[in-house]
Specification:
Pfam families: DJ-1_PfpI (PF01965). By secondary structure, the protein is an alpha/beta fold. The chain has seven helices and eleven strands. Helix 1 (14-26) runs parallel beside helix 6 and helix 6 runs antiparallel to helix 7 (170-178). It is globular and about 40 Å long.
Length: 185
């Protein structure tokens, strides 16, 4: 079963974090949530999450996917953490999936994972002038190579479902989506 790491930084966007955790677990993926700091994580709107582990406990482990929730100051906290940069570099070197939503694609940009790629993010999160080698799109979800990016809280379900399809298959995605009772699904 594919393993997924979701690092939880103080100030992360709770809608994105919880949607990712919930939908990926509904698909029966092994999801590990890891706090950047010991103790509960207070999200951008005051919701408190308790991670499965501290990041130090799994920072050297291999994962099929590392996915970064956005929000502020969560994305900034992820970007400042050298362990996150090391994890992302190892993902790329091993040709494994990396993903980010909302403000978190800026972390992928600062790590160099978006160089020469198309991506999306919350408007303005990735500075086009600072990163002219990135083609910024306004699509809900963008896949380029082994990197997946998404726009924000409103695209969190589409993002999570796309990750399920990439890690498993379209049938698993459809099975999870059918139980969500989404309009038009």
């Amino acid at each position: 079963m594919p393993r997924v790491l979701i690092p939880l930084a103080p100030g992360c966007e709770e809608l994105e974090a919880v949607t990712l955790i919930d939908l990926l677990r509904r698909a029966e993926l092994e999801v590990v949530t890891a706090a950047l700091e010991p103790g509960p994580v207070t999200c951008s709107r005051g919701t408190v999450l308790v991670a499965d582990v501290d990041l130090d406990e799994v920072a050297e482990d291999d994962f099929d996917l590392v996915v970064l929730p956005g929000g502020q100051p969560g994305a900034t906290n992820l970007e400042r953490d050298t362990r996150i940069h090391d994890l992302l570099a190892r993902q790329a070197a091993a040709d494994r999936w990396s993903a980010a939503i909302c403000a978190a694609p800026a972390v992928l940009a600062s790590t160099g994972l978006l160089d020469g790629r198309s991506a999306t993010s919350f408007p303005g999160a990735v500075d086009a002038a600072r990163y002219p080698e990135i083609t910024l799109l306004e699509q809900p979800v963008v896949i380029d190579g082994k990197v997946v990016t998404s726009r924000g809280p409103g695209t969190a379900m589409d993002f999570a479902l796309q990750l399920i399809e990439l890690l498993l298959d379209a049938e698993q995605r459809a099975a999870v989506e059918a139980k969500l009772m989404r309009p038009g699904a």
